[in-house]
Structure formats: C-alpha cells, structure tokens
Design brief:
Elements: H1 3-28, H2 34-55, H3 66-76, H4 81-88, H5 108-126
Length: about 140
C-alpha cells in the first residue's frame, strides 16, 4: 500500500474511532444524548467502510448511503456481507433525528444496539486491514 493511501485509510479510521468514542460518551451522559449517539454510530460505520474502500483504492462519492458503499466493500470481500447488512440499518441516523420537526427520537435501547453494530463494523473491517494503518 502506497504511503499516501495508508495515510488516507488511517485518517478515515481515526475519524471513525472518534465517532465511536463520541457515541459512547453520548450514552453515558446524564441524561443520555441519544440522537447524537445514533448519529455518531452511523458516522463510525460509514467512515470505517470508507477506510476499507480507500485501502483497496476504490473510489466512492460523498454519501451517507451505507448500502451503496457497503455493496462496494462486499464486492471486494464477500465475508463482510453480514456486518454490512446490519450497518445498513444505521443509514437513516445520518439525517433522521438531526433537524427540528423530525419524528420522536430513538430509544436508549436502539442507541445501544446501534453502538453494538458500529463496533462490529469497526472490528470486522479493521481485522481485514494491515496493522500499520490501524489507529
């Protein structure tokens, strides 16, 4: 892997790790910041998948569509299909609860489930990347 590609992959992973930490922080706040937590879970999964695509030098457009980028990742490594399928459910968290006038927010249980999925995405994807790009 070229140094500039490795740097980009690492940057995506660092940002994804920050989103995971922010989601965790949001959920231990009193009261929990549930809308923020699910947003950060979606962002962590999205950025982790984008890191995988970058590592394989596969271009992707600016999007929050986990189905789109996840399909591209699965085309590279079919063993990611199960975790990508779970991550697709996080996609609406990128926008659904971010603005006024939206439906009632997610429950704390939903947020905990979203965090579990985002962690699974992180674990499964980073396991397939070289050690030198992992934070």
């Amino acid at each position: 892997m070229q140094p500039e590609v490795a740097a980009e992959v690492r940057d995506w992973l660092l940002r994804a790790a920050e989103d995971l930490r922010e989601a965790e922080h949001d959920l231990v706040a009193a009261p929990p910041l549930i809308r923020g937590a699910v947003f950060h879970c979606q962002q962590a999964a999205e950025k982790t998948i984008k890191a995988f695509l970058a590592a394989h030098e596969r271009p992707f457009r600016k999007t929050h569509d986990i189905d789109e980028i996840g399909s591209a990742a699965v085309a590279i490594d079919a063993s990611l299909a199960a975790v990508v399928d779970l991550a697709i459910d996080l996609a609406p968290y990128a926008w659904r609860y971010r603005y006024p006038g939206t439906p009632v927010g997610p429950t704390e249980a939903e947020a905990q489930g979203a965090l579990a999925v985002a962690r699974d995405v992180w674990r499964e994807v980073t396991a397939r990347l070289p050690l030198h790009v992992r934070p």
